[in-house]
Specification:
Elements lengths: L15 E2 L13 E2 L78 H20 L15 H16 L2 E2 L4 E8 L9 E10 L2 E4 L5 E6 L2 E12 L2 E14 L2
Antiparallel strand pairs: 1-2, 3-6, 4-5, 5-8, 6-7, 8-9
């Protein structure tokens, strides 16, 4: 089993994740990486024979000559129109663009906007893994945030090997705002419950490669920072981890 939310498959040891130091002196929470027991083109030929008769006084028919056979041309198959036999490889889906898919609510400079962004951040952790999308998740993070670095490495590894998980790797169970006194407008704090979902790692032919994640529950404390005109995930601290039944 792999600590999928916080790191890579079974072979990677656990470590500590933490965000970048805040220039504004905001508090930070150390992060402990959680571990879990891991067809073809059909050619048609249409031939239409049109027979006409002229109206007039009936006359005796002339003696018939020997019948002339009507030759129907044989369709010629264009070699370029033939189709190959066998399964068609599935197309590789495009990377998940974290900015293009961000909901409008997550762009608002309000507490509700920060909450929407925090939820979207963890949804993007799952999406950029389901469809391995290197260089996407860091666009939502402050520079140096370790969780983003680890998830970026995992996404790049999957993309390089043409591997993918069998489905979503996590879901957001709940989000609770953490009061801060005074609470600066450019910082927001949330406690976020995450449910890690069971999944299998598959190769390009959808064959199981023997890596998996198991159900697990995580509770994170997070800090968001407003930078110019958008929110960024500034710190992620794992405060509790419990194996789900």
């Amino acid at each position: 089993m792999s600590p999928e939310i916080s790191g890579t498959p079974t072979t990677e040891p656990a470590g500590h994740l933490e965000g970048r130091p805040s220039a504004r002196g905001a508090r930070r929470t150390p992060i402990k990486v959680a571990r879990s027991t891991v067809v073809g083109a059909a050619l048609t030929a249409a031939i239409t024979a049109l027979m006409t008769a002229c109206a007039g006084t009936p006359v005796e028919p002339a003696p018939r000559s020997s019948a002339t056979a009507i030759k129907i041309p044989t369709p010629v198959v264009d070699p370029s129109a033939t189709t190959s036999i066998g399964p068609t490889p599935s197309a590789t889906p495009p990377p998940f663009d974290v900015l293009a898919n961000m909901p409008p609510a997550a762009k608002e400079h309000t507490a509700k906007g920060a909450e929407a962004f925090a939820r979207y951040f963890f949804e993007s952790v799952s999406k950029t893994t389901e469809v391995p999308s290197p260089k996407q998740l860091p666009r939502l993070c402050s520079p140096g945030l370790k969780m983003c670095t680890v998830r970026e490495s995992r996404s790049a590894e999957l993309a390089a090997n043409r591997h993918k998980p069998s489905g979503p790797i996590l879901e957001v169970a709940s989000i609770t705002q953490i009061p801060d006194t005074p609470s600066p407008a450019d910082f927001q704090y949330f406690r976020i419950a995450i449910r890690q979902l069971p999944s299998r790692e598959l190769d390009a032919d959808n064959r199981d490669v023997g890596q998996w994640t198991s159900p697990n529950d995580f509770l994170f404390e997070t800090r968001l920072i407003w930078e110019g005109d958008h929110w960024l995930m500034d710190d992620v601290g794992d405060i509790t981890t419990r194996n789900a039944p």
